[in-house]
Automatic annotation (TrEMBL):
InterPro entries: SprA-related. Residues 27-37 have a biased composition (Polar residues). This is SprA-related family protein. Residues 201-211 have a biased composition (Basic and acidic residues). Residues 42-63 have a biased composition (Low complexity). Residues 27-67, 190-211 are annotated as: Disordered.
Length: 211
C-alpha cells in the first residue's frame, strides 16, 4: 500500500457529553436558563480571558439559589474543570493544531460553564513511510494525552495505529526489496568473479608440446 501526501483534520469529541446532557437536563428545569451556546478558545491567553470574563459575569447571588440549584451548580463547576483539563492535555500533544472549541451552558447562577469540547488534530502522511510512522505516533500521543481518554480519543488512536501498521508494512517491504536487490548484486558479482577466476586459471596451465 502506498501512502500518499494527504492531510486530514480530525476533531476530538470529549467524552463529557453524556454527563453534559445530564447537566443540561437538570439545569433546564431552572427558569430562564440558556443552553447550548458555543465558543472557541484559540490559545491559552484567550482561555484565561474567558475565565476572567466568567468571573466578571453578573450572576445571581448563590445564597438565593435553592438547594437543588446549588447541587446543579457544583456539578457544572466540576464538569467545566474536567473539560478544560481534558482539552488542555490534547492541546499539549504534538499533533494538535489550533485551539480548543467548547460547548457552554448557562448555570443557575447566570455564568457560562464548559460542558464539552474538542481539539482539531492534524494527521499528516507522507510518501516516506518512516516519516508517516513518526507523524502517526504524534497523533496517538495527542489522542491519549488526557488521563482519562474518551471513547472518541481511543477510536482516533486506533485508526492512527492501523495507518501506522500499514506504513510499517510498506517500510518492511521497501527494506526487503532493497535487500533482495543487494543480494542479487552480490550474487552476480560473485558469479562474475568465479568466471574470471576460471578463465584466468585456464590461461595459466602449461602447454603440452609433443615432438
Amino acid at each position: 500500500m502506498e501512502i500518499g501526501n494527504n492531510t486530514s483534520l480530525y476533531g476530538y469529541n470529549v467524552d463529557y457529553f453524556s454527563r453534559a446532557n445530564f447537566q443540561e437536563q437538570a439545569v433546564s428545569n431552572s427558569k430562564g436558563v440558556q443552553q447550548d451556546t458555543r465558543g472557541v478558545e484559540n490559545n491559552e491567553s484567550s482561555s484565561q480571558t474567558n475565565n476572567k470574563q466568567n468571573q466578571n459575569q453578573t450572576g445571581q447571588d448563590t445564597t438565593k439559589l435553592s438547594n437543588e440549584q446549588q447541587v446543579q451548580l457544583a456539578k457544572l463547576k466540576v464538569v467545566d474543570a474536567q473539560v478544560r483539563a481534558h482539552e488542555a492535555a490534547h492541546q499539549s500533544g504534538p499533533a494538535a493544531v489550533g485551539g480548543a472549541s467548547f460547548t457552554y451552558t448557562k448555570g443557575p447562577d447566570g455564568i457560562m460553564y464548559a460542558i464539552g469540547g474538542e481539539v482539531p488534530v492534524q494527521i499528516e502522511t507522507s510518501s516516506d513511510p518512516q516519516e508517516t510512522i513518526s507523524n502517526l505516533q504524534g497523533v496517538i500521543a495527542t489522542a491519549l494525552a488526557p488521563a482519562d481518554p474518551s471513547p472518541q480519543d481511543i477510536s482516533i488512536a486506533s485508526k492512527a495505529r492501523v495507518l501506522m501498521m500499514k506504513a510499517q508494512q510498506e517500510l518492511t517491504q521497501e527494506f526487503n526489496d532493497k535487500k533482495t536487490d543487494s543480494d542479487t548484486y552480490v550474487k552476480n558479482a560473485l558469479d562474475q568473479y568465479e568466471q574470471n577466476s576460471n578463465s584466468s586459471d585456464s590461461k595459466d596451465e602449461p602447454l603440452e608440446i609433443t615432438a
